């Protein structure tokens, strides 16, 4: 007998009836975030390609495309496969794809949708070219340039120029441009420090583009940027595509970023929550909820409690411990919203996202790419 994990909610159900722990999406706040991104980019000549690693959900990606997104980014081939299966026609794997099996899946996907991938190694270029030739496709490829994150990517300038030339000279690859994402800048708290880091990235990209222009290599795409910095890249007149992802949810860590005046940035609303239940209150001033390490990622800090009278103190596998000011306000069975510290890995813990308005469940969407790690 095959067991299937039941869905925690059904449309039309009262929010109070939803099983916990559950991943909630406040649809009013979500819609506001989509609209606020649009408004923030008015007058800026950039395309939006949101990062789907934040939500892993084709339903959300389709709503982003309805707001003008040209497609989505993914980090893994499996994520890209899930997005294409869900109706997304243009997917960039903003990562390196290495190994024969993964590459075969990538080029097979390119037979069904517009697919792009990043490279930072000449041997990988050759492997992609061979696989694309065997599959009878022309694969879109971008050079990943290290602009300060010090993760993947060739160095700006001559190394990037050589890599672009290797792509352009490959018969089954199409050189599409440059990927220059400064991931290390996204959670820098100071607005001035974030701007300084991105301005350095812009200079490196500009120098690289000048070299490519000398070689007659046109960059259709110059892409990067995240929720923490996208307005800087969008205003640079160098980047023509941006990749914010977390803006749809706005986790607790991003909310700690400061604006120019040293105050928290509140342009985007918290829309993603973990719905949890008080399961024990045996110790005065303390309650235990059913959302612990298996329900929340704590790599960016503990979650915030959406109640000023409580603080999340710590987590074990299945339990979260809260300090509460008024224990009588947190009886057994009370349900509470938690704001995750880091949305991306928290989403990856769930099979479903429960969309609600007011006190009523409106939709339940599968997190199709949950666990898509390869």
Shape: globular
Order of helices and strands: EHEHEHEHEHEEHEHEHEEEEEEEHEE
- How many helices? 9
Secondary-structure arrangement, i.e. CATH architecture of the largest domain: Alpha-Beta Barrel
Looking at CATH, the homologous superfamily of the largest domain is: Alanine racemase
Indicate the CATH class of the largest domain: Alpha Beta
What count of domains describes the coordinates? Answer: 2
Helix percent reads 25-40%
Structure summary, number of beta strands = 18
CATH topology of the largest domain: TIM Barrel
* Main sheet characteristics: 9 strands, mixed
> What distance separates the N and C termini?
28 Å
Radius of gyration (Å):
22 Å
How would you describe what is shown here?
The longest helix has 24 residues, at 191-214. Strands 1, 11, 12, 13, 14, 15, 16, 17 and 18 form a 9-stranded mixed β-sheet that branches. Strands 2, 3, 4, 5, 6, 7, 8, 9 and 10 form a 9-stranded parallel β-sheet that branches. This protein has 374 residues and is α/β, with parallel strands linked by helices. The protein has helices at 27-40, 58-66, 77-85, 100-109, 122-135, 158-168, 191-214, 230-234, 343-347, and strands at residues 22-26, 47-48, 72-74, 90-96, 114-119, 139-146, 154-155, 173-179, 221-224, 241-242, 272-283, 286-289, 304-305, 310-315, 320-324, 335-339, 352-357, 360-366. It has 2 domains: 15-23 and 266-366, D-serine dehydratase-like domain (Lyase, Ornithine Decarboxylase, Chain A, domain 1, Beta Barrel); 44-249, TIM Barrel (Alpha-Beta Barrel), CATH 3.20.20. The model has no long low-confidence stretch (mean pLDDT 96). Helix 4 crosses helix 5 (122-135). Strand 17 and strand 18 (360-366) form a beta hairpin.
